[in-house]
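Incident log, structure service

09:12 report received: a user says their structure output differs between two submissions of the same chain.
09:20 pulled the input from the user's history:
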Amino acid sequence: MTHTVHFTPEARDQLDKLEADISGAASPAVAARYVDSIVDHCEKLQTFPHRGTRRDDLRPGLRTLGFRRRVTILFEVAADTVNIIGVYYGGQDYEAALREGDLTDDEES
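09:34 re-ran on a clean worker, output below:
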C-alpha cells in the first residue's frame, strides 16, 4: 500500500526557514539542494511509512526519523497518509515544541 505524504503548514514553514538560514550561510543553490533532499527523504515514507522511532511518550502515534545526523523529522502515520508535522535542524528541541503546543493536532488540509 502506498501512502500519501502530506507536509503540514508548520513543517513547510520550518523547511522555508531552514532554506533561508542555509542560503545566508552558504548559497541559495546549496540551500535548495539540501531542503530538496529532506523532502525527498520524507517522500520515501510513501512505501515504508512505519520506519523511524516511535515516540508515544511525547504524543500518541508520533514517530521521528533522522536525516544526515543534523535533521529530525517528526511525523504521524494515518490510514493512507503520512503527516510530516515538523522538521528540526541542528539539535532544535522538538520535545519542548510539543510541550508548548507549537505542533497542533489539526494536520488536515
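09:41 both user submissions now match this output. Likely a transient worker issue. Closing.
09:42 reviewer note: The longest strand covers residues 81-89. Strands lie at 4-7, 53-54, 62-67, 71-77, 81-89.
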